[in-house]
Fold each of these.
Amino acid sequence: MGKNQPGYFGEFGGRYSPEILTEALEELESTYQKLKKSKKFKKELEFYLQNYVGRPSPLTYAERLTKHWGGARIWLKREDLNHTGAHKINNAIGQALIAKFMGKKRIIAETGAGQHGLATATVGAMFGMETVVYMGAVDVERQNLNAKKIEMLGAKILPVTAGEATLKEATSEAMRDWALNVSTTHYIVGSAIGPHPFPTIVRDLQSIIGKEAKSQFKKQNHKLPHAIVACVGGGSNAIGMFHAFLKDKHVAIYGAEAGGLGPKPGEHSATLTYGKTGFLHGTKTLIIQDEGGQIVPAHSVSAGLDYPGVGPEHAFLSQTKRVDYRMVTDEQALDSFLEVTRIEGIIPALETAHAFHVAREVAKDLGKKKDLIICLSGRGDKDVTEVLRLLGERSK
Amino acid sequence: MSKIKDLFNSGKFKSAFIPYFTLGDPNYNDSIEFGKTILDNGADILELGIPFSDPVADGPVIQRAVARSLKNKFSFDEIFRVTKEIHLHKQETPLVYLTYFNPIYHCGIQTFLDRAKEAGVVGLVIPDLPFDTKESETLFHELRKRDMDLIHLVTPASTKKRIESLKKTSTGFIYYVTSFGVTGERREFSVDLKERIRFLKDTIQLPICAGFGISTPEQANQIAGYADGIIIGSAIQRVIEENGQNSPKTKDVLADYISKIRASIT
């Protein structure tokens, strides 16, 4: 594999994983290339997306938020209305089908906020596959409702206690499981990260978000929006939203990453702002690391953004400046969470709340009569307990 | 000619013993003592682990060793200082580093290799750097310039085609991963281990050393019947973990274990 070969986005991407996984990754790549062209696969995927996930998800005009912010017209791409409550199901369904076509009976996943774990447990139940979900022990605690749902669906949760006991460690542990069980198991990577072909597969499966948003907006307004916004941890909802618009140069694209508590190492997950080029979990990308090349633990109020790396395509889009990535602090995200809930009657995920903060800034800059679409990547039911706890701390 | 090639050509042993331990566990100065003890009791090549925060190819024992090591402040200065001390203790024993690619890349490939060579290191094993990447090619050429080796891993899942194509950029020896999964002690090995190692030997004209899962003298003896070398990591790291910091006991247990393994494969 070389710089200009598939799997690279500029200098980022590639396949930097233990040798034991190479054969499985090559098999996955060739299967996926075939399935992409297969009418049967496409039909089956479409069937489940329509009849199980509930696609297309609506594009909602947010009238109250538009008035409240006093700038551009706000539109919401409603991934929160998908079955299981987030965009993660688009990818989980697609990859479970790929696993089925490959004859694999067991699926595993890593999860931070629990949304990808929940989506994987759901498709595992539906397709009757043995499912194991790796989740950091800290995340099992702060996303307890999702952890309970995952178990209720019949999947096994394996809490990971190493290191910071969050998404990074869960990802490492899932990779180790895959290395041991590679012949029987498919690893459903949950974000646009990991060794090639995962970032491409996840992007393709999530790109339905942007495709739908584009055609829905065009149908209603006979033009393209002026700007789009999504939150970025690993970046799967964002790349899914962005992809259909990347070539439309006049559409401004914004990503919101977790600025956490502040700029000090260990206090944030702002990879695109503070990261340096490196190698983590099988891919070359931007990573938050120290002077010894050790990965620095990330922090975010949202478990789903709490990852010190980022999908390689985002690293590339940041380098080429096609996307403007901005940081949002925990406090700002929490404020946006409450604002959107009260003004629009939609409880967004804490991850998505980061996108709302950037959207508010962008809406003001754009001014009236312009249009802005926000990818509402998931709903915030899972975050209610944590938000109440944070509000309790704030009032002290 | 590389030091490793010389060693395997020397006919000094039937099968080489290649122990591994993580530098900095529990601290850098103790690592020097552990390294010396291992060298004195029969290592033919010594593999030194440079800790990395996210060792995806390693099992729980080595993960814990890395975590203990990283409780000390990680610095390349310390890594190279300790390596040099170990090297000076017994200069004829080749030292190789096992680490993940990110620290090397972050240090800068040229700087890293110059300093590693200066500290006495003659080869590298990098579990997350596949041979068919641009970075691996660069590294290979830089290593050749310095008479150092790039030791590739081959696994039970590696296809014949892949094995054929890694020949071009492989030197020193082949690190044959005996089983699926990560590092760690195991009771059984895959049934076709012997055949796979034979096939590798016939395909790649390099010594084939087996690692991942070996811990007892009996296992070492059995595998040494058909492999050119035995690599042991987790079992050694467990001795360090169980016996604590630089106690005379740790060194005694290490010495005893290393000499037993060495004797079992002679």
Note: The longest helix of chain A spans residues 350-366.
Amino acid sequence: MLNKLTASAGSNRFRLDLVLQAVFLALIFYLAYSVFHNTQVNLENRGIESGFEFLDKEAGLPIGDALISYTPTDSYGWAFFTAVVNTLYVAFFAIILATVVGVLIGIARVSRNWLVCRMAAIYVETLRNVPLLLTLIFIYVVVLSSLPSARSSWLLTEGILLNIRGFYFPKPLPQDGFGLVLFSVGLAVVLCWGFRRWAKRYTERTGQELASFRISLVLLLGLPALTYLLTGQPLLWENPELKGFNYRGGLSLRPEFLALLLGLVLYTAAFIGENVRSGIQSVSKGQVEAAQALGLKPGKVMLRVVLPQALRVIIPATTNDYTSLVKNSSLAVAIGYPDMVSVGGTIIGQNGQAIEIIGMWMAVYMAINLLISAFMNWLNARVQMVER
Amino acid sequence: MSDITQTAQRTFTPQPALAPPKELKGAVHWARTNLFDGWLNTVLTLLSLLLIFSVVPGLLRWGLLDAVWQGDSEACRVEGVGACWSFIGANFRILMVGIYPVEEIWRPVLSFLLLLGVIWLTVSRRVRGIRMVAFWLVLPFIAYWLIGGGYLGLPEVDQSRWGGLMLSLLLAAVGIIVSVPLGILLALGRFSDSPVIKISCVSFIETIRGVPLITILFMASVMLPLFLPEGMDVNNLLRIQIGMILFSSAYMAEVVRGGLQAVPRGQTEAAKALGLPYRHIMFYVVIPQALRHVLPPLIGRCIALFKDTSLVLIVGLLDFLGMLKSSTQDSEWLGFEAESYVFGAFVYWLVCYSMSRYGQHLESAGPKNNN
């Protein structure tokens, strides 16, 4: 490799290298020291105290859209944690939805249907070549503000509605005996897992295929449904209702969250779509033809032959897109969704402790990104071809 | 002998190709194979047509047929008219150059023409290699001097008055031109023998890549003044430019690293066998090959950097997006957000799409690898 280039040079060269390294190290230390010193002096001059003591103080800042319980009397630390939860919340759903939309777009891009293929191409080229921030502001300012007011909401069905204040849907109210239903869901999952293991071994032993997909579907849906009916339907729904000028009750997603989610999903899906396309195109044509020659239906060819092989190309590239999605969620600050950059920025404005907050931002983003990479690398290792 | 040649001539007389059977050509056949091939494709085609017919006519009416192209804001407030493109016309100057003084406007225009000239020289391949690099390196300095003034008789225009598309292009151009060589250095540092250099480069790259650009911009804008010794003042624009360069160079470094890994080891060994010193091996043998390998992702990073300049809006610079946003808050022109952002999206799209097409063109037109 490249680093072996200079290794074999004579001992004079070696000594020169050592000197150079020492000089470089000294320079770094000097820089670090002077930055540290300057910061100390500057902070003192501006009367900003440093350290993390402020995290225990009362924050007094409102957070419009808190997923966990938060009031302005809580501490700065809790406010920041609430914002971290908000970031994770939007990123989690955005990753799932972007993956679904992205796979569909990618498949549409290689479709034999000319019209579908063109439309997917236009989608990808438009979304990829416009800054995400502009897309976000556009969705928030133009699209969502054209929604009707609360009084003339769009009713999708009873209890599910969309208006300029957000997206409303019924809130589940668990009654006595609902624990049993939850338990049966868990039981169904365990049973299903055990059954699939047994079915696999059964197939290997006898060569006979079981309709394991259908059986597990029946197991997964049937058992909880049966328990639900037997325990007397222990789940009530609280519908949102119009009171005065606004809807009350039920659950709602606020427009800031919706805009951020929509923007992140649409933007990232364009990139994931391209990964999926390049993955599918990397599978050699002979594989498809062989599968067709075996008489597999087109859907099965895609699901069982093409996609598993395409995943090897898709997963590493998509890992990058997931981590950029998490980082891009910081653009929430521009449309007022209280993610950690938005809340942290407010804290900096209040007490000037920029160093601590920026340090906390960096630590949290790094941690999230490392977790995503670790998970995707594990996934990647599972889909790699076992070479003989 | 003559028999054979005669036979050969008779056998090899090319026959005119038969026209394809009637049912295998024409629009109907094309539609049948590309649109109505099986029930699934037919359903998809019908759904797509439904989508197109429900969206496109409305958009066309709004954007073109019913749009207002001239006149003041009153002309746009009439019932039933579509997009108000005269809003863009009225705000065109601030969208392009921000609140740059009107009487000095020839300076950004001249800089822009120079930029177009250098782009033309590059794309038409009239200058190449080291001279092309020199043109691109000199351009930002001339543009900076032209726009900023202050020397050689040009009156100074304060940086707080720079804005609009001019500022976005300037941030992107300087960002790209500085971060590419910096990225190459960082990538070389990653392969360095010296553990000190290697660890510094790796930790710089990984730290920057782990965090969002916004936090870097906040750091540049809020924290950099704290780091500097007292009395030393760097203005906000330059601070943010430095932030963008640091961010971009970490990503460039990863791209270049991929290229360095793709250069076969034999190349460096051969160069070493010739007795070339390290810097010659790098600059004449390894780096040119590495850059050629990673031209497409390098162009991709340039596009990303141009898109990322829109984020400076959040730390208070009025770039193109910032001007699009603030022009909708003009008291005379309230309520034309859609026009403003659609126009902005179109301009961003035009620049980015042209860059990506140029990248694809380079990829196909460049010298082929024969390994």
Note: The mean pLDDT of chain A is 86.
